[in-house]
């Protein structure tokens, strides 16, 4: 009888919204939820050091099975002593299964019951990824939380296609459990699919919950659907997930969606959004979206955000950061990336505090008003 190394502890439920404050325990430490997890695709969060991430309060980060399989290769990471030692990160790591990358990066792919045939996006080589291979790679990487290999259908997708996809994902989930070689050291999460169809989400959740994973993710959202569709799907999907296990919404990182997801009972979020837009000079601030490359900031010697106490805002001006970004200086990317990651990590700390004080609904209203999300033509990311 295996004992899962991942355990969820419920601390408090917000009386105003039903959102939950909790703690996830892993082999490499515990972290409070709801939480935003920075993404380190290739065993590094772009431009950030592990010390930077610790300084801003990150307790868990993500890495990517598909990309690490291609470079440097999971065998090399295993020989280094696992991903934690390889990248010098001693806190929790979650690895996704590679499924999303297979379906999003490769134009040439063929889905079969055994797995997916596709081409390496770097050099065109033929590759094959199956539930068993995804488990082998993640076992070698040694992450605290592994993700089951699933099919990631496009949005929108026809009901009949989605039904077959959900059924295949359930069969693959069983194979993932059977192929998982380190169940006492690494937790494996199942992924609930089904698109916007309530009946199929129920079917997927029923199948996966019966397999007793130590945690569950909602997949197939943040793939182009409107925000109201995402929220509607979460409204009927989250209650289908066990209350005593972590709930993870994959690929979501805009501030409004983090708050809305937390209100709907989600514990964990991740997204490349904060670092991706940072490299283009777009910042998340307490007053809304700020594009520091704009000419009006050329002589603005104030911080990116007057209400932020991150390393960037304490030490550097908008004018200086604009100069660095315009000159393609790496330090500029580092400063903007630090700020955006800090903003989301800090936002979730404020969300947790609001849950403690039973006022998350009020916090949402105040934040949306200040951020401009309530305006008809509000600019999002």
Automatic annotation (TrEMBL):
Function (record text): Catalyzes the base-exchange of a guanine (G) residue with the queuine precursor 7-aminomethyl-7-deazaguanine (PreQ1) at position 34 (anticodon wobble position) in tRNAs with GU(N) anticodons (tRNA-Asp, -Asn, -His and -Tyr). Catalysis occurs through a double-displacement mechanism. The nucleophile active site attacks the C1' of nucleotide 34 to detach the guanine base from the RNA, forming a covalent enzyme-RNA intermediate. The proton acceptor active site deprotonates the incoming PreQ1, allowing a nucleophilic attack on the C1' of the ribose to form the product.
Signal peptide feature range: none
Residue positions binding Zn(2+): 308, 310, 313, 339
Record-level Gene Ontology MF annotations: glycosyltransferase activity
tRNA-guanine(15) transglycosylase-like domain boundaries: 17-371
Entry annotated with the keyword Metal-binding: yes
Residues involved in substrate binding: 96-100, 150, 193, 220
Subunit structure: Homodimer. Within each dimer, one monomer is responsible for RNA recognition and catalysis, while the other monomer binds to the replacement base PreQ1.
Active site: 96 (proton acceptor), 270 (nucleophile)
Short name of any one Pfam family annotated for the protein: TGT
Cofactor, free-text remark: Binds 1 zinc ion per subunit.
Keyword field: Glycosyltransferase, Metal-binding, Queuosine biosynthesis, Transferase, tRNA processing, Zinc
This protein's pathway: tRNA modification; tRNA-queuosine biosynthesis
Protein name as it appears in the record: Queuine tRNA-ribosyltransferase
EC main group: transferase
Region (RNA binding): 251-257, 275-279
Gene: tgt
Cofactor(s) needed by this chain: Zn(2+)
Family the UniProt entry places it in: Belongs to the queuine tRNA-ribosyltransferase family.
Keyword Manganese in record: no
The enzyme's E.C. designation: 2.4.2.29
